[in-house]
Design brief:
Order of helices and strands: HHEHEEEHEEEH
Radius of gyration: 20 Å
Distance between the termini: 53 Å
Number of domains: 1
CATH class: Alpha Beta
CATH topology: Alpha-D-Glucose-1,6-Bisphosphate, Chain A, domain 4
Shape: elongated
CATH architecture: 2-Layer Sandwich
Largest sheet: 7 strands, antiparallel
Helix content: 25-40%
Structural class: alpha+beta
Amino acid sequence: MRRFYQSAATFALSLILPGCYFTYSGPLTENPVLVRPQTGTTVENPVYVPLSPQNYGAVFEKTIDVLDDYFEIAYTNRYDGRIETFPRIAPGYEQFFKPGNPNPRDRLQATFQTIRNRAVVLIQPAQDGGYFIDVSVYKELEDLPQPDRATAGAAIFQGVNSVERQFEVVDPSVFESNWIPLGRNHHLEQLILHRLRSECM
């Protein structure tokens, strides 16, 4: 019951102070450089970067640098122009200091559900010079048969081992059936595109 009151108090505080997570400063990995998109302005996806062919390495490295602030990089291929990231759990209002969810509705949804984001970026040369950077951020919802660590109705003395050894197979071809695709996270895509346009020009 105490955890319920703590969660309710944290949620109430996050509703009272909605802008706190924009001004909090801390470790760079949890608080990347925040670029607030101007209201009403959207960047086309893919974004066009007018640079010469000699600057491809700089564009590729800057794209990795921007993505690295939000995700952990899983795969890069400079020749293919492809960058993929590991999935990352989206923060809710209880983690107001993490700016991983720029949209208040997505942040509220991530408060009560386990949602993760993963990104795929493609860098393609344009015909008349420059590059197109296509950013796709996919949103997924965790599907569990029952609430995780639910103790309601269980016996006081449980026969479960305290140490659970779960061996994960690290293979990109393995499909995770406990995650439901929810489409794309356009707000996080716009945040990354704004940063790429401002830093690659």
